[in-house]
Amino acid sequence: MNRRYFIYMFISLVWVSFLTGCWNRKEMNELAIVLAAGIDKVDDRYRFSAQVVDPGQVSSRKGGGGGRAPATLYTEEADTIFEAVRKITRISPRKLYFSHLRIFVIDESLAKEGMAEVLDFLNRDHEIRSDFYIVVSKGVKAEDTLKILTAVETIPANQLFSSLDASERNWSPSMTVTIDSLIDDLISDGKNPVLTGLRVVGELETGKSKRNVENIDPPGRLRYSGLAVFKKDRLIGWLNEDESRGYNFIMDNVKSSVGNVTCPGEGKVIGEVIRANTVVKGMVYRGRPQVNINVRIEGNVGEVECATLDLTKKDTIRELEKKMGKKIGKSMESVIEKAQNSYKSDIFGFGKAIRRSNPKAWKTLKKGWDEEYFTDLRVTINVDYKIRGTGTMGKSFLNEMK
Amino acid sequence: MDNPNTSFQTLFDNLEQNLRQIKQTLGNSGDIVIRTIPLSRHGKRMITLIYIDGMADKKLVNDFIVESLMSNSNSAEDKDDLDKNGFEDDVQSLKNSVLALGSINDLTDFEAVYNAVLSGDTVILIDGYTAGMSADTKGWKDRGVTEPASENVVRGPREGFSESIGINIALIRRKIKSPDLRMDKKQIGRVTRTEIGIMYVKSIANDKIVKEVHARLDRIDIDGILESGYIEELIQDSNFTPFPTVFNTERPDVVAAELLEGKVAILVDGTPYTLIVPAPFISFLHAAEDYYQRADISSFIRILRFMGIFISLLGPSLYIAITNFHQELLPTQLLIGLAAQREDIPFPAFIEAFIMEATFEILREAGVRMPKYIGAAVSIVGTLVIGSAAVEAGVVSAVMVIVVSLTAISSFVIPAYNVAIAFRMLRFPMMGLAASFGLFGIMFGIILLILHLCSLRTFGVPYMSPFAPLTPADQKDTLVRFPHWLMRTRPRLANQKNVNRLNPAPSRKSRE
Questions:
Q1: Model ipTM over 0.90
Q2: What pLDDT digit, counting tens, does each position of B302-324 carry?
Q3: A55: which chain B residues are within 8 Å (Cβ-Cβ)?
Q4: What is the rounded CA–CA span in Å between residue A223 and residue A246?
Q5: Which domains does chain A have, with CATH numbers?
Q6: Residues in Cβ contact with A389 at an 8 Å cutoff, skipping those fewer than 6 apart
Q7: What average pLDDT does range B156-174 have in this prediction?
């Protein structure tokens, strides 16, 4: 009796498991893998573009690399982003799959009006992970940046992702910003966000066609240039390359970078930063906030273009260290000055530093920080540049060439 | 046979009557040789030899029984007082001086006669005497001691059991020359009357387990035992499990090692496969060679083996689960690559995997059953069909072929064939769970599996010991193998009485 009951239970359980119908199951070839997405504003509606990879064209299997582009762009307009995303199924054979999103481009004009509403969807949707980078298109529609074909990395989104990663690590005027850190900057007082700008250089129209990658020198290219300065969620201006580097030094965001100083005579010496560490300390002194920035940099001499320099001498190295430190200090000063005077936006988080050191004073400073206190803020910069190596040579052979 | 039952009919003192009865019972089979010769030259007294042609060694019968009886009858010519003397003396003198054979037993009833004749002995019946003798003349063609086919080693002894229980026992005796090594004989099978030997080392084995083995074997009432598999199924603890709870091997060195750990071996006549109980799960994952190679090598190989189990159980299910439910777990490039391969595949991944796994199992079984010469052809066709043609035809994706072949090869690293099969069978429900619930399903399956494994017992010993219950001292010979000089104690699971494997080292204090 008992046994029969058990068997009936077991059989019905087995059948019940068939009824579930494999909930939420999706085969890989039922996915439209979105690697890059962009958002524009057309009139009052959002225009959402998704760059979807065409796996058959990317893989190295035979038949790949045929006539089709490695990715395809789906674009839809709607009153809200989510509606636009779902509307794309009208033109796409598969539902968009966002887990592998690498890069998200926000249009410059939209950023100028305020981008906060856009971010909610990116942060809320369960499929979207938080490890993609956000950039702002500069002088071009976000949609158009997703139309450029690239060589080497056949999928443009991968090119954008890897290039941003590499340039942040080795060149330093650009920076990677993920959705979490961006939202963190937006909600915390005493810090305004910054995003890297993305431009299309060369011919946009040719860049969109397959001819672009057929050239050894593609006519249309994607290029990161400078940082976009925000005030809250509104874009208010751009930093040039030098200022961007200064900004990254202040933010302790430099892993490696390259910069030059002039020789005693003519020509230049180029230093490579191999290690940099920045400590920003805020304090309130007699009711007035001030900030101390201490930067410790270790570098190598990467290139010497002048004949007069004798790198085997201690004094020369000292001299170079001083100059290079000064140069970096200057670019830091210039970016602070620009932020204080032109943009009136604390993109450095100085306010945060002061709040950390003196939370009581911060309560009164908080109101009108950007407009009042930040613009008058006294910032002392102290750069300690140490040259650790001169490469595989001491004196340049240029010395002996005379 | 040495179970004198009152119902057994005792021998008559009339030879004619005896022979008639025997012929009637054995049905005049053609291979039974009944030969009657006079005991003395003039004597009326006759003596009869009964043996089975082919089972008894003819040379032994001729040289040592017929010959000596003949010469005896010649020399006994002048002794006419045989009739006067007691039969006892007569038989005794035959036994003592005439028959030049090692083992001679007395027989009193017909049942014993049949037993002796049918197991290859020669039965000697003497007219006027109610007791016969059986002479051990067993001798049939034997396969001999050859290399074990199913358990290969790179380093280690190359001898394997054969079908004859006597030789098998000798092989074990040769490894353990201790008076403590005991052998209890039994006969099981109403019709086949198969000889069973129970071996254990008295000073090490747990008496309770030995007693339990005897009890379980005594309870068997079946017409025939043709292989140790019959015994295994009849004495195992749990019937509703894919996992074996009785270990089998055809290597004498493995049996010897297990006996030294306090286990009990059950030898069955007619098969090279010897059973060993108790058999916890971990013993199926250890190969003989683990103890012959250096400890580090063995440990490395064992770790490989555990990886192999993991892959063979979960390989296809993980693939199905990740590609169907958790695509975000894959690196982007890999996802695109996999998606590209799947572009033209008409089936869902589960069906694809199922087809491939089933094809593989069919090929494997075909390869085993085929004559050796055709087996190679099967594997060639198999590789071609599965490997490239199926991918080319767009029926399955190339990754699936990789997954399935990796899984298949992994399952072969499990030394015990029956456990490998168990995991292969469990792979299918796992795939089903993965296809319906993703990684949650796999986790659910693993939890069920572990619960099931922990609920099993083998001759009173928990199947998952020494993991559950955890015995820290026994971990030295589980996932890795410690060097022999560190394995001081025997596993605790089966024996508690003779624990030290090595002589306990003198403690530091006493050395000073």
A1: no
A2: 999 999 999 999 999 999 999 98
A3: 336-337, 339-340, 343
A4: 20
A5: 29-239 (no CATH), 241-402 (3.30.300.210)
A6: A300, A301
A7: 90
